[in-house]
Design goal:
With 259 residues, this protein is mostly helical. It has helices spanning 4-24, 33-59, 62-69, 72-82, 89-106, 125-148, 153-175, 185-205, 210-217, 220-232, 238-258. The longest helix is centred in the N-terminal third of the chain and has 27 residues, at 33-59. It starts with a helix and ends with a helix.
Length: 259
């Protein structure tokens, strides 16, 4: 409906408004240099990742873009393990299974690949944008987990909103290029609220294990596929149904092991 930058501006403004009451009830922290660095990576990675993801979704299809972006969880999990996080054997075996389930559940039929403008060929631009978004999100998730270990969650979420408003929303408004139509506005508001709640949930969950939280967070792609089936009557392929089954079984088993 509207350009990706305008969507991002609206999402960040909404998120900042939602976040302000929470900031008012927690103490103001005094982060050291290392924490400031993690906060900057968390915020910048979130903003750039969203801009890339929105651009990919504008040009491509959800069934192509979502599973690629969902690899953010695997990227953050690998970073956590490389950095020294230790996993129980059961969790270490289940995380790849869950990741496979996510990809299968979110992957549509090959007819969903994106045609070029003239309809004669396929373009990989949305896929490349989604890959770049996954890298940014993966870095952001890992940095968010590092910052949330020592800071209240609302302050961990603040940098992305500040960066988004200052670097995206304000310049667009100054140039008169901020475009939010009436039909698009409710969707942008919902996206802004859910984006804050999602990152807050991950920040809290990552305190109990970055790798597990990151992989479980990547379920958004599978949930989107199921939601499209329920809300829009989009058919799930056998491959997607098998992915949902694997995902449900893997998550249930992982929850039992963690408990």
């Amino acid at each position: 409906m509207v350009p990706p930058a305008s969507v991002l501006a609206g999402v960040m403004i909404t998120g900042l408004v939602v976040l302000l009451p929470a900031l008012a009830v927690v103490d103001v922290p005094s982060p050291d240099g290392a924490l400031v660095g993690w906060l900057l990576v968390s915020g910048a990675g979130n903003v750039v990742g969203l801009l890339l993801a929105y651009s990919a979704l504008r040009e491509g299809k959800v069934s192509v873009v979502a599973p690629v972006v969902s690899t953010e969880g695997a990227i953050a999990a690998v970073a956590a393990v490389v950095a020294g996080e230790r996993l129980q054997l059961g969790a270490a075996l289940l995380l790849p299974v869950i990741a496979v389930g996510v990809v299968l559940a979110a992957t549509g039929p090959t007819t969903d690949l994106v045609p070029a403008d003239d309809g004669s060929a396929r373009t990989w631009r949305p896929v490349l944008l989604a890959c770049a978004a996954a890298l940014c999100f993966g870095a952001s998730l890992y940095a968010t987990s590092k910052a949330s270990a020592d800071l209240p969650v609302p302050w961990v979420l603040l940098p992305a909103r500040l960066i988004g408003v200052a670097a995206i929303a304000v310049p667009l408004a100054v140039r008169g290029a901020l475009t939010l139509t009436r039909p698009a506005l409710p969707l942008v508001l919902v996206a802004g609220v859910c984006e804050v709640l999602g990152f807050a949930s991950f920040a809290a969950g990552s305190r109990h294990g970055v790798a597990v939280a990151a992989v479980l967070a990547s379920q958004f792609a599978a949930l989107a596929a199921v939601a499209a089936f329920v809300l829009f009557r989009e058919r799930l392929t056998r491959l997607q149904l098998s992915g949902v089954s694997v995902l449900a079984l893997g998550v249930a088993t992982l929850a039992a092991i963690r408990a």
